[in-house]
From TrEMBL:
It comes from the Bacteria. Gene3D superfamilies: 3.40.1190.20. One of its GO terms (biological process) is thiamine biosynthetic process. GO terms for molecular function: hydroxymethylpyrimidine kinase activity; phosphomethylpyrimidine kinase activity. Its EC number is 2.7.1.49. It comes from Pseudomonas indica. Pathway: Cofactor biosynthesis; thiamine diphosphate biosynthesis. This is hydroxymethylpyrimidine kinase.
Length: 265
């Protein structure tokens, strides 16, 4: 039997969404679409649907460490993608995991609120992520409301939040789309002075799992060896297409269509 070359492996540390719109299922689908292999390690269980989240439970750190260590011992991890962590203890757990992966790019999606607005962690989780995870991440991908929480600037602009956060983060991608503007402006900032804005057409409606989709696609592009700015552009373009083709399986937000309809045919 002949075997194909192995796809790049991305370790995903995130929560489980039983609706399938966000969380680890979103990670898996987006990474498959990039030609990568997702290795999902569950950090939290949630009770949510396409409308909102009503409850969550963070897993014991020993279980998360065991999952990650099993993957690291067996598979050549090319990138790590973070989603929902839910507690300060889980932030520290990720720091410990990354110590075993020197040089591996970490994409930090600071999941602090569900798409419907429900909290996915206490306020001190955002502070811990800023202080301990942003410094070891290759790039963080907050939306503007999350960037305001991380920067402790409730009314801050993307530029103001970036100024506050760049001492911690090497690169920041602050995504837009949360106002009533006709065009969405996604802004990439680098501690090295990089400033680049990616503009796309605003789509109608609201979406469940768009941030997960973007961060996973970006981690996949980095795992494939794509240069950072190009990887950001590729991930944003892919995410926009997923939102354009989104479906409405439930009573709430649209769910991005991350895989083509004929993917398994």
């Amino acid at each position: 039997m002949t075997t194909s070359p192995s796809r790049p492996v991305v370790l995903c540390l995130s929560g489980h969404d039983p609706s399938g719109g966000a969380g680890l299922q979103a990670d898996i689908e987006a990474l498959l679409a990039q030609g990568c292999h997702a290795a999902p390690a569950v950090t939290a269980l949630t009770v949510q649907d396409t409308v909102n989240v009503s409850d969550f439970r963070v897993l014991d750190r020993d279980w998360v460490l065991a999952q990650a260590r099993a993957v690291i011992a067996d598979l050549p991890v090319a990138a790590v993608k973070l989603g929902m962590l839910g507690s300060v203890e889980m932030v520290d757990t990720v720091v410990e995991i990354m110590q075993a992966l020197p040089g591996v790019p970490l994409v930090c999606d600071p999941v602090l609120r569900a798409g419907g607005g429900g909290a996915l962690g206490k306020d001190d989780v955002g502070y811990a992520m800023r202080e301990r995870l942003l410094p070891i991440a290759r790039i963080a991908t907050p939306n503007l409301p999350e960037a305001r929480i991380l920067a402790e600037l409730p009314e801050g602009t993307a530029d103001q939040c970036a100024e506050k956060l760049l001492p911690f983060a090497e690169y920041l991608l602050i995504t837009g789309g949360h106002g009533d503007e006709q065009e969405v402006h996604n802004r990439l900032y680098g501690r090295d002075g990089l400033r680049e804005t990616f503009t796309c057409q605003r789509l109608p409606g609201s979406y469940h799992g768009s941030g997960c989709t973007l961060a996973s696609a970006l981690s996949g592009r980095l795992a494939l060896g794509e240069e950072l700015v190009s990887a950001v552009r590729s991930a944003l373009d892919y995410t926009w297409r997923c939102l354009r083709d989104a479906e409405a399986p439930g009573r709430g937000q649209y769910v991005p269509r991350r895989l083509p309809l004929d993917f398994c045919s």
